[in-house]
Each structure stands twice: as C-alpha cells, then as structure tokens.
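Board notes (copied after class):
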Amino acid sequence: MAGWRALREDMVAEVRGRGISGVVADALLAVPRHLFLPDLSVEVVYRDDAIVTKRDAHGVPISSSSQPAMMALMLDQLGVEPGQRVLEIGAGTGYNAALLAHLVGPRGRVVSVDIDADLVRRAREHLAEAGHPEVEVVCGDGAEGFAPAAPYDRVIATVGVWDLAPAWLDQLGPGGRVVAPLDLCGVQRSVALEREGAHWVSRSVVPCGFMRMRGPFAGPETILVLDRGTDLTISLPGAAEIGDLLKALGGPVAELTTGVNADEGQVLDGLNLWLAVHEPRWCMMSEAQPGWLATSPLDLQGFKACVGIVEGDSLCLLDRGPGAALVARAHGPERDRLAGDLAAHVRAWNGAGRPMTADLRIDVHAGDPPHGGLVIPKRHTDLVLSWASG
C-alpha cells in the first residue's frame, strides 16, 4: 500500500483548487478513502472521480462513491461544527459518514441511513476499519429519517432526491440546516436550506449529479439504457412514451444554428437548468463509448453527454458548431419542429442574461401556497425558483 498517502495529498491539493475550506480539506487528509473501496487500486481510489459501486439488473448505476470535490463542496455547504448531531441520508460506502465523524469530533454524533442492507453491512465494516465504529449506520427508508436520535443540527442527503421529506425538516432542531441534491425537473442542484419564518430559503446552490433515491420516496425520473454496447442512456424528468430513438439517430438530420455561443460550463450549469425548468420535454443523453452521438458540447467524467428535448420518435440535441456556436441537431419525423423549439429556448436563456446556478434562489414552501416566481410542485413541498440576473 506504499504511496497512498502521497496520492491522497495530490487528490486533496486538486480538490483545494475548487475553493473548499481548510476544515474540509483536513478531513479529506485524515480519512483514508481506500479503506472504503478495498477492491480497487489506490491509483484509482485517489483520483478526483466518482466511482460506481453497484448497478441494478438493467445495468443502471444505483450506488457510488461520490466525487471527492463534490463531497467537499457539499460539506462546506453543510457547515458542520464540532459537537453537532448529523443525519446522513444514503450511506454508500461509508466514506462521507467518516468525513462527517471527523468534522463533528468525539462530542458529536453521526447517523447514516440507507435502504440497501448490503450497503449498510459493508459501510459498517469500512467505518470500523477506518477507526469510526461510533458512526451509527441504520438500514431503513431514508425518507423517514431516524427519529430516535433527533433533533439534528444538520441533515445531508448524499443521494439525489425529488422532494424534501417532511421527516428531515421535522427532525431538524432550531437553527438547523439541510443540504440535498434536489431535483429541478430532471436536473440536480445541491441546495443548502435554512428555515425563514414559515418556509425554507436556499443559502447556496451548487451544480451536482447523484444517484437517485430508491424506495417509496423515489421520484418519477426515468433513466433508460438504449444501447448497452455504448452505454447510450437517456434521462427524463418523469415517465414518458418515447419511440425508437436509435432509428431516429440513424436517420436524417436537421441542423439549426441558434446564433448563441457558449462554453461547456455555461451549457451544463446555466443553459441545461434553464431548459429543464422551462421545457417538460427535456432530456439528457449520454454514452460511455463512441457510437450514436455525433459530437457533444459536454465532455464529462468518463462519458459524453448532450441535452435537448424528446417527443415520441423524434429528439433534438444541443450540439457544438464551429468554435463555441450552439447548434440544434434534430432527428426523427418531427426534427424540423423540435430544432426550432430547442433553438428558441437557447435564445430565451441568452436573452434573459444567461442566468447560472450561482444566481438561483430557491424558496421551499410546505403547506403555505407560494406566490410569484417559477413554481415546481412536488409531493410535500412547492419550490419557487428565481434568478438574480433573470
């Protein structure tokens, strides 16, 4: 195992470049990630990458060890202090719970809840091996929280959630804060929320991407693997009837220049979110191996991705033309119409001042009807979105 300390230091140095606090960086230096991923080489473990640890019967990833930089950003959003009580939703490998245990110290308490008994067992083993047997890992539905150890000072969800569970808000003590990767019409943003009067207000919003929550509290999001050979996958905000998209992708193409130039960060951060919350036909397509997607404006960790809209047998994906020019590239029988629709959304985002995630404010109302703004209704809450620059 020689060399893992140097690899860990290099990883933390890279993560520090994202602007994380010294307190969280110290936690990353103190907790050995390789003990939570014992089947992988330390060279793989100490990259700043997310690592899939479990897939379902259809090949869709359902659990992972999150990217360390993303974990660090969320821990800074959470603002954990020594001696606090923290509830974590989604145990995963146990690595994030160990970081939390380091942050709260010996006077604090960490409870982690996961619906998967196999993951719970392994997380307990990893935590004990890493010197944190005091972390309580509970097998259960995370949407119910863990009332026996309430109230908590902080609640953090390390799985993508479609709505905020009433139990999490109820189990938070006065002055508490909840951080969760919240679904915004198919796109996730890590939102730090605090109570303000009768509702909850975001204190920070950060782009993110997490495995979705499973069980009774799961949302309607749909992820379909269209071609296992390339891992071509489509993500949709809800249930939708789609046609033979592989046939469409292999057929005629209609291209429409939007007249808007944007770099990868602007597309992934601002434009993708704008499109998702304004267009119910939003989709994201990705593939791990080249095959179906001609080009892609998004080169993510280990795969290429495109955002766009889908309707029946037709879809339109945002592509990159010469330089940073954005092009609507459409397939299927309704390709011309969809190309026009997608181009119109791109121009609307540009005309609104190109709002980004950092400009976003989210108010969460549970029971009191919201007024004004862009409202996203959920099961238990209503989200009201507004942009400072929009």
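Comment from the instructor: The domain at 4-207 is CATH 3.40.50.150 (Rossmann fold). The first strand starts at residue 51 and ends at 55.
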